[in-house]
Amino acid sequence: MTNDNHTDKRENVLIIDDESVTRMMVRQVLEQSGYHVSEAPNGGAGLDHVKQQMPDLILLDVRMPDMNGFDTCRAIRTLVNGSHVPILMLTALDDIVSVQLAFDSGATDFITKPINWALLAQRLNYALRTKKQEEQLRASEARLAHAQQLARLGHWYFDPANDTVSMSVSLARDLGFDSERVSLQTLSARIHRQDRRLVFRTLRKVFTEGNSADIEFRLVNELGRVCNLHLLVERRNIHGVVVMEGTVQDVTARIEAEARISYFAHYDRLTDLPNRVLFWDRLTHSIAEGKRSGEHFAVLMIDLDRFNVLNASIGHTNGDLVIKEIASRLQGCLRSSDTLSRIGGDEFAIIYHGLDSDTNLGPTLSRLMSAFEEPVRHPGADLHVSASIGVAIFPDDGEDLDTLLMHVDVARSRAKQIPGTSYQFYASAMGASVRDRIAMEAALRDALSSNAFELYYQPLVRLNDSVVWGVEALLRWHHPERGMVPPDEFIPILEETGLLHDVGEWIVRQACNDMGDHTFVVSINLSPMQFRNGDLLDRILRVLDETHFPPERLQVEITENVLIDDHRKAKTVLEALRQKQVKVAVDDFGTGFSSLAYLKAYNADFLKIDKSFICELEEDKSNMAIVRSAINLGHDLGMHIIGEGVENIGSLDMLARMGCDVAQGYLIARPLDRGKLERWLAERDM
Ligand code: C2E
Ligand code: CA
Ligand code: CA
Prior knowledge:
The chain is an alpha/beta fold. The chain folds into 4 domains: about 130 residues, Rossmann fold; about 100 residues, Beta-Lactamase; about 170 residues, Reverse transcriptase/Diguanylate cyclase domain (Alpha-Beta Plaits, 2-Layer Sandwich); about 240 residues, EAL domain (TIM Barrel). Strand 4, helix 4 and strand 5 form a beta-alpha-beta unit. The longest helix has about 35 residues. About 35% of the residues are buried. Bound molecules: ligand 1 and calcium ion (2 copies). The site of one calcium ion has 4 residues, from loops. One calcium ion (CA) binds next to strand 22.
């Protein structure tokens, strides 16, 4: 049982036989045929040999003392790797019982004694070839099982006779079933509710129409975890019995990966914002939608200035943090309906919808600009990042993607030439109105801080003695490029943007300061929107307090709209003002509802008859009638009357004859800046 030679490529045959002659003969014959032969004289020795080194084939004599061939064979088969070695039993020619026993104890085949030496090598050859094929088959099966396991692929089979589904062990385990055989009911309960119809409709269709099909559906395990399965189903007819079978594969990982891939294909990893691809997509969609509905929208491109330099000096990791911080600041400036996306390393883009229904692009631009005011905190130093913003409007600045983007880019590069954070519109000849409006909003935001507002004063003169009774303060705005803009153009914007709350307070303060040295009344205009904030009264009283302006010299002009708008709130404010001796005048009387009930309820001190009735007073009989009745009505209600818009002497005379108390108009004086007013007053005194 020695002769072991590990480098030897020849096949090892072990002969276990108690007859030394047989062993010797076998060795001689087989060695001639190129085998390597080992010998064992009994079952025990053979077993020992096998344990030490498994031969490629065993020749085993049935009849041996102590441990016979059957027992030896069984013992070999129980060894760890002993199940596959071919064992050829040597039996007596006439011993049929032994042949049967040999197979029962696990023998591969048998060779009858006396041995046919001429055929022995052939028989061995054949047995070894079979063994090799088996090994290959086993290996490929193992590989298949492994592959199936890796692919999470399982086989299943539906038996319509008892409505059960059988499946491979690993599949049952993977799907969380404790048995390989489950009832259709159990299975159905585990299919995702939304997918049940699909699964059963497909199965039914294949069953009745005899095709194959494949579907994906979701299965929910007891813990609620959802797995996605790909099911392949085929109908087969086995000896007249119809069965359904197929494979099922767990594709959860693939579906998750696809979702991840799709996410990263459309979103930026760093900021989680839509990326360039998704931005293009949304913009294309917005353009199509805009063409259909006629909606205007804006496209903004925001480019960080000199970001490459910054990146190089603080490193890419820190650069990424800066980008993230900027992205979240920008996001904070926008509504959820706006698309903010990162379209390049240091480039963001925005699609801003709803230009037609709201006027908030101006404030949004200001917010975007101020997003760059605060430095970005960074260990070492606070970083000041500035940006250049380009704006283009659809469809004015481009009706297709390329033109629009080209024009935003032009606007952006123009903004780049201005130091610090700034924005520029793409100025085309068309669509000036939308852009003007937006640009005006933005400019108005800076008007207070840049001292672009000024108050003009228009004198009001008492008709019976020609004394200057007061002045009306009128707001003026010096636009940086356009010069003086008429109040009718910009006051509505101040109202809509809410800026008038602060500007309104400035007007009161400015008027009180400017006119503090005089003794006449200063009349200021209040817009209905100023009453909408709860703090109008506080603001006025605070200014009076701070400027030491006598409240009885202040008059507020309100239109009837104030009364209609929110009458309870307005009433409270006006009553409180009157309590402090502040005068209340109803402005533009005759143009609104002119409701007597309101006038009574508010107890105004003055009624200002609108200039549209006064300026052509002499020529128009109906105006005359209206003015006369307004004067009488006012007087009856205990109010004084102011006629505004007096442009000629005829109107002035007529107003005086009708009993009007105070007059205002170009005939007396135009609205004048403070210096001119002082000169006008001085000349009058002479
Ligand atoms: P309003 O309150 O009716 O102001 C009188 C307007 O009539 C002023 O126009 C004034 O310049 C104009 N006017 C005065 N006399 C004559 C005249 O003889 N003929 C003609 N044709 N017009 C005359 P302005 O200054 O352009 O103001 C227009 C409107 O803007 C004002 O109408 C007022 O509603 C609003 N506004 C002006 N300043 C302020 C302000 O400080 N606050 C508020 N809330 N509104 C203001
Ligand atoms: Ca007025
Ligand atoms: Ca008026």
